[in-house]
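Q: What residues go here?
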């Protein structure tokens, strides 16, 4: 860490930490800490006024951003430089939204045209009647499609999509039960095209097609991968292999051909709007400086809590049933990106890395986990996310009530309520941020996801972490493989469990 960064952290650590109620003595607070992004699908309002950020902390974090060369690192990402240094790769998911190095944007556009042709050909019947798609992938090859499809197809989909990730056969069987092999396509989604879960599920899906009377099971498969030659070798015809660039990380890949099921379910127009929404946030992120940069400002709030207040988790509650899978998506994005103990140059991090991301959907979570938020001993910074336009067409009382509950929680966490009866005392001074979308549609969902991607990157830059590798997931995979291969012995506990489970 540079001297300037060390000095910035020291300044931040020494600042007073007034309570939220005290901070609201400033009549300009709401104006200072809230912002609105006008986007293609409608505006999104961000309100950090109920966090403990104040002008002094924000100035301190701006000094840290300068010391960590945030502007230079952001420019390097945009230019397509190798910023994923441990894997020697550029980081170019934004090029799929038309933002980045020209040659990569052109390549991404060409790949999208190929994907569009296949999607439209399927809609037009080129592969016969297609009612269902079983999308097989895991991690970044599943979470984004699952979120977008669940959020955006409430009123129906052009094709009924089932996302299957787990190697537990119960997951694939559930999808098989819901589909007819005669009218089902299989998407095999894997950046590497080697992931055990995905390849095992794909093989079983082929068997199922065959057993269901499909004469040419491979003819019903579409492959989505950064290694097209592996998909061809596995048996998929080149015309149904949709590649994406190696410089697009798995957890950033839903904009690429990994988004094929989204486009198939929604139609190309909606998928294009999804990309446009994300692109609008890219423009904002790459062109706004300092506090005007909202993903950067969100990272300031994140770091305030983990680094200066010792919080170990952060929670996201979507007060919108359509976003019930958002916390799952954010868990991979944030924890796989920034859950690391070393800096990009391999030095010990020396401070907390990413917090544990968790969350749920409101109002359900209020009746399950909010007790701890209001009265527990762990301080948990919370994000509330809601949309003003309802997703349902029932009595407007539903949505009014939903929004009232969402906003009540932020107010209650902050204000608390004193009581001499300890069990009924609410200490208050508990932080939350609110992200209020005018509407939830393909463009605003794209924008929301891109906002979180850039927020994650900004957190990584300010901590000095490479947010784009994930070596932590490898060891467990290797051990599982050696268990299956046999001939290796483990500790007594693992040996006893393996014997009892019948694996060895
Ligand atoms: O094991 C972690 C991981 O590599 C994730 O980063 C990735 O999203 C997931 O596995 C799936 O990988 P693939 O798309 O190569 O099958």
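A:
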């Amino acid at each position: 860490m540079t001297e300037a960064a060390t000095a910035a952290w020291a300044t931040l650590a020494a600042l007073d930490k007034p309570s939220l109620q005290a901070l609201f003595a400033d009549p300009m607070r709401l104006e200072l800490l809230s912002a609105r992004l006008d986007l293609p699908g409608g505006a999104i309002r961000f309100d950090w006024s109920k966090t403990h950020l104040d002008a002094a902390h924000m100035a301190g974090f701006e000094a840290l951003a300068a010391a960590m060369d945030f502007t230079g690192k952001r420019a390097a990402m945009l230019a397509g430089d190798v910023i994923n240094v441990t894997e020697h790769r550029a980081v170019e998911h934004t090029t799929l939204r038309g933002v980045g190095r020209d040659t990569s944007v052109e390549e991404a556009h060409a790949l999208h045209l190929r994907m569009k042709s296949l999607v439209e050909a399927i809609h037009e019947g080129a592969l016969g009647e297609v009612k269902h798609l079983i999308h097989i992938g895991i991690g970044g090859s599943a979470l984004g499609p699952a979120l977008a499809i669940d959020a955006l197809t409430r009123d129906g989909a052009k094709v009924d999509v089932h996302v299957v990730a787990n190697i537990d056969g119960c997951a694939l069987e559930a999808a098989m039960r819901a589909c007819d092999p005669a009218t089902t396509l299989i998407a095999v989604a894997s950046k590497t095209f080697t992931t055990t879960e995905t390849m095992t599920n794909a093989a079983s899906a082929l068997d199922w097609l065959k057993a269901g009377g499909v004469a040419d099971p491979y003819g019903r498969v579409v492959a989505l991968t950064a290694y097209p030659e592996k998909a061809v070798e596995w048996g998929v015809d080149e015309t149904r292999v949709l590649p994406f660039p190696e410089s697009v990380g798995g957890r950033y890949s839903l904009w690429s051909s990994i988004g094929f099921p989204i486009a198939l379910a929604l139609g190309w127009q909606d998928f294009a709007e999804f990309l446009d929404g994300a692109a609008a946030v890219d423009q904002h992120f790459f062109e706004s400086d300092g506090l005007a940069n909202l993903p950067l400002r969100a990272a300031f709030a994140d770091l305030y809590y983990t680094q200066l207040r010792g919080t170990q988790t952060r929670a996201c509650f979507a007060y919108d049933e359509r976003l019930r899978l958002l916390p799952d998506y954010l868990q991979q994005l944030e924890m796989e990106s920034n859950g690391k103990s070393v800096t990009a140059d391999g030095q010990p991090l020396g401070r907390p890395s990413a917090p544990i991301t968790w969350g749920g959907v409101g109002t359900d979570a209020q009746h399950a986990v909010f007790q701890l938020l209001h009265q527990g001993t762990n301080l948990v910074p919370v994000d509330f996310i809601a949309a003003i336009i309802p997703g349902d067409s029932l009595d407007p009382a539903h949505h009014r009530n939903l929004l009232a509950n969402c906003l009540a929680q932020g107010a209650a966490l902050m204000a608390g309520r004193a009581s001499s009866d300890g069990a009924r005392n609410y200490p208050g001074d508990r932080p939350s941020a609110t992200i209020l979308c005018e509407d939830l549609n393909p463009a605003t969902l794209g924008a929301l996801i891109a906002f979180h991607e850039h927020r994650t990157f900004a957190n990584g830059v300010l901590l000095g972490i490479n947010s784009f590798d994930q070596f932590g997931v490898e060891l467990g995979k290797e051990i599982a493989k050696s268990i299956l291969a046999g001939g290796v012995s483990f500790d007594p506990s693992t040996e006893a469990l393996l014997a009892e489970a019948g694996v060895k």
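A: Context that may help when evaluating the design: The chain has a mean pLDDT of 97. Residues 473-504 form one domain.
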